[in-house]
């Protein structure tokens, strides 16, 4: 890596010790100047602080040891920052400290005599420092903590001259201004009813002060009813005034924003959303989420932790993470967009039951999940899918999606070239057919899931499909065939353990471009609306299966926490770039349906 020229270099006072402070376009570094009686600076937390190795070879060996415990993969946001960090350590001697310029939040000049209260915290300067070094400035930056958590930390430097202090402040601000990926104006929606109903408190106490510190202006709207954010984005919002849209809520609130923003963009550009073959027009606005819901699956899968401060800091520094956004159609009619999970059978039944128990709060998911497990309903139908061929990675290769994921870049580019799909037949599968590259499977299923991200959450750290990629233009189709309750319980428990949840005879997973599902009792174009024809379906089942104890023939599709009105759907994957603000880019992959849709997460 080419060495960056210094912009500034000075000897400044920090905690009663003299430091050599240097700034270039990549790093702000400070190294204590050795004296006869060395003083140790304490009480300061740094993004990285170690005794530097005495040679480049020792530095490489030391860094390799860190990689063996996987620290690097989880804590470095980009290859560029890694190289900057590596260069810094190879050239360091003694105790050194540093922070990437891209992760500096703000810089402000202090009045040493009376302290400062810019961020609501008084900072009284030591008396000895103020006598010899009467001028000071504070740099606020991102500090990486344990388990993907980010925090805002401060370091204060003291200068001999006021002109030098102002020069440092001005130069750092110029470097921050040059970071064009950072948002300056945000539209914020707060859901006051989601999760534990703490959305407003979380924003006011934890997020708003950080946005103010980073000089980000915000327009805040507290939603008053379901789909308030969606409808406002579709019609009233003046989107040209903002660099991004942020929601404070759960997965449902995020889904509202996606629907409103994507629908508005397609309408403004004359795109027919009801046409499965239409490619979505990318939106220039970025989308972010501050977790304040019940499960916050999307935030956990893209950022690695459900922490409002961490998500806010990712938004401030302009972090970007490609994601798949999907659209769902039925009979050439648009139904919904989705960004994480489409689930039929177990997850659909669980959601349908939990919706009748909203008075229970988040506990309703545990209750409904246990009840659905006991009922153990299976559903007959036909699943057909177009496998993703000539791609890197498989659903079982244990390769996790990370920031700058090579598999996402390779597969996304491959798909954008509209490469023809070819599928080899599998003679071992007796209940499957191949038609024009499509594979057709008929059977009885406890669950049919399509995961476009890992769908990880605190209770299931690996998620439904641990190796799912956020921006590769595919979705992982998981089929769980009829089995005993005990075996199904084994499968569910493996989501919370280190074992492979797909290593079971009744479970199969495929990485697909498109898929469709048709229930057994829905073989014609006149498919019945689930909400209007439940009684007729019920009687038909009982006539065909008198000993079935009135087991239903249809489940419901769980689309990111919303129930779809149709059981027969088609799903297709079309890559269209969108921007997400959470790790800040949504790579909008519209999974579409001709007659029916996460770095990893960067940490």
UniProtKB/TrEMBL annotation:
One BP annotation, GO: ceramide metabolic process
Coiled coil: none
GO annotations of cellular component type: membrane
Pfam families the record matches: CERK_C (PF19280), DAGK_cat (PF00781), PH_CERK (PF25382)
Gene (UniProt): CERK
Organism: Oncorhynchus kisutch
Protein name: Ceramide kinase
Residue span, DAGKc domain: 181-332
GO molecular function annotation: ceramide kinase activity
């Amino acid at each position: 890596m080419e060495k960056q020229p210094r912009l500034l270099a000075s000897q400044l006072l920090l905690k009663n010790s003299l430091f050599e402070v240097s700034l270039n376009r990549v790093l702000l570094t400070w190294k204590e100047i050795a004296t006869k009686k060395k003083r140790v600076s304490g009480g300061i937390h740094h993004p990285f602080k170690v005794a530097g190795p005495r040679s480049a070879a020792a530095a490489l060996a030391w860094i390799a040891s860190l990689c063996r415990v996987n620290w690097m993969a989880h804590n470095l946001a980009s290859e560029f920052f890694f190289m900057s960090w590596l260069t810094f350590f190879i050239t360091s001697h003694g105790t050194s400290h540093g922070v990437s310029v891209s992760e500096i939040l703000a810089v402000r000049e202090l009045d040493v005599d009376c302290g400062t209260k810019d961020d609501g915290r008084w900072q009284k300067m030591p008396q000895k420092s103020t006598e010899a070094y009467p001028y000071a400035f504070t740099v606020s930056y991102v500090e990486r903590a344990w388990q993907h958590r980010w925090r805002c930390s401060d370091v204060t430097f003291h200068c001999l001259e006021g002109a030098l202090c102002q020069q440092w402040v001005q130069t750092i601000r110029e470097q921050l201004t040059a970071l064009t990926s950072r948002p300056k104006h945000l539209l914020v929606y707060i859901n006051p009813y989601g999760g534990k109903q703490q959305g407003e408190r979380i924003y006011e106490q934890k997020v708003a002060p950080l946005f103010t510190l980073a000089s980000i202006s915000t327009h805040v709207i507290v939603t008053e009813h379901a789909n308030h954010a969606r409808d406002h984005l579709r019609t009233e919002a003046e989107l040209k005034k903002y660099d991004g849209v942020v929601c404070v809520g759960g997965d449902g609130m995020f889904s509202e924003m996606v629907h409103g923003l994507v629908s508005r963009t397609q309408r403004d550009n004359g795109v027919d959303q009801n046409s499965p073959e239409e490619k979505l027009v990318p939106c220039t606005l970025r989308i972010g989420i501050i977790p304040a819901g019940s499960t916050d699956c999307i935030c956990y899968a893209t950022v690695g932790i459900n922490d409002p401060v961490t998500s806010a800091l990712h938004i401030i520094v302009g972090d970007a993470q490609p994601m798949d956004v999907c659209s769902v159609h039925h009979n050439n009619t648009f139904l919904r967009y989705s960004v994480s999970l489409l689930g039929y059978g177990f997850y659909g039944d669980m959601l349908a039951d939990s919706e009748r128990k909203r008075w229970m709060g988040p506990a309703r998911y545990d209750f409904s999940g246990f009840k659905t497990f006991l009922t153990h309903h299976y559903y007959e139908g036909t699943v057909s899918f177009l496998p993703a061929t000539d791609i890197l990675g498989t659903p079982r290769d244990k390769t996790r999606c990370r920031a700058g994921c090579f598999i996402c870049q390779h597969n996304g580019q491959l798909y954008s070239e509209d490469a023809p799909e070819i599928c080899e037949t599998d003679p071992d599968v007796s209940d499957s057919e191949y038609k024009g590259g499509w594979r057709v499977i008929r059977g009885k299923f406890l669950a049919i899931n399509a995961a476009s991200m890992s769908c990880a959450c605190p209770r299931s750290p690996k998620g439904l499909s641990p190796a799912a990629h956020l921006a590769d233009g595919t979705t992982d189709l998981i089929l769980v065939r009829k089995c005993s309750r005990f075996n199904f319980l084994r499968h569910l428990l493996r989501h919370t353990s280190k074992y492979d949840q797909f290593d079971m005879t009744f479970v199969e997973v495929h990485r697909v471009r498109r898929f469709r599902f048709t229930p057994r009792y829905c073989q014609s174009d006149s498919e019945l609306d689930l909400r209007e024809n439940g009684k007729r379906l019920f009687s038909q089942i009982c006539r065909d299966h008198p000993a079935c104890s009135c087991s239903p023939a249809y489940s419901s599709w769980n689309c990111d926490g919303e129930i779809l009105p149709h059981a027969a759907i088609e799903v297709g994957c079309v890559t269209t770039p969108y921007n997400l603000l959470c790790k800040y880019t949504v790579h909008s992959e519209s999974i579409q349906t001709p007659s029916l849709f996460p770095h990893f997460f960067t940490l």
